[in-house]
Amino acid sequence: MSAKPHIFLVEDDLSFGAVLKSYLEINDFEVEWVDDGKSAMNQFNKSSFDICILDVMLPNVDGFTIGTEIRKVNTDVPILFLTAKNLREDVLKGYRIGADDYITKPFDTEVLIFKLRAILKRQAGTQPRDTDFYTIGSYLFDYRLRTIEHEGSKHKLSPKETELLKMLCDNRNELLPRETALKKIWGDDGYFTARSMDVYLTKLRKLFTEDPSVEIRNIHGSGFMLEIKDSV
User: Fold this and answer.
1) Which domains does the chain carry?
2) Burial letters for 180-210: b for 16+ Cβ neighbours within 10 Å, e otherwise?
């Protein structure tokens, strides 16, 4: 098996496709790029892929149609749709087909890399095993007792703060998608629950201000990441 994840990329914009392919390869992905939707399935069937990136707006065969055809022959390979539109119906259509994620052009390429790695990590089943204790920089988080300890002082967390911090810890230095946290902890990803989660994130950020190696980053509206920098 190749050490690099193998990406099937369908993008008809030649300039953008070439740049995206190069960027992905620089970030340790192997990329098979197809610039015409008509030949996409023929190319897909020739090889084995770890993830698909499909542009929705293609001149001949659109990305949704390609995604549907891929799902007929492979129900497991993750699919990420690229689109220039952010229409609710398009997003829902993509997820009904079996999309694992969706990203709207123009997008931050760093966010795309985070999304790809998060999807592949979930697909491989490599999430860290459940544990009660987490070391977060110079802090100790006790999930069972819902406490954070730092230099002898202990802070009690609320149940939702505890669950949110655990999810961040289990995805440390990786993207935690906003929708994933909302649905798992709050049960839905509506506007008001999203605002509620933002309040809890603000509270958690304040707890780690004494250790500059720990940061809860907002990844451009796509989600969050608990970044823990290694000590030198």
Assistant:
1) 6-124 (3.40.50.2300), 133-228 (1.10.10.10)
2) bbbeebbeeeeeebeeebeebbeebeebbee
Q: Is 154 exposed, middle or buried (0-12, 13-18, 19+ CB in 10 A)?
A: exposed
* Mean pLDDT for all residues in the chain: 87
Cβ–Cβ contacts within 10 Å for residue 130, how many? 8
140 is written with which tokens?
A: 């100790």
On the question of pLDDT at 129 being above 60, the answer is no
| Residue 221 clears pLDDT 90, i.e. is over it | no
Distance CA 79, CA 97 (A): 9
Say whether pLDDT at 41 is over 50.
yes
Q: Mean pLDDT throughout 63-77? A: 91
Q: Which amino acid would we find at residue 28?
A: D
Cβ-contact 80, 8 below 8 angstroms? no
pTM of the model: 0.60
Q: Which of 82, 103, 107, 115 is nearest to 10 (CA)?
A: 82
Q: Are 69 and 38 in contact (CB under 8 A)?
A: no
Token look-up 């440390």 returns: 172
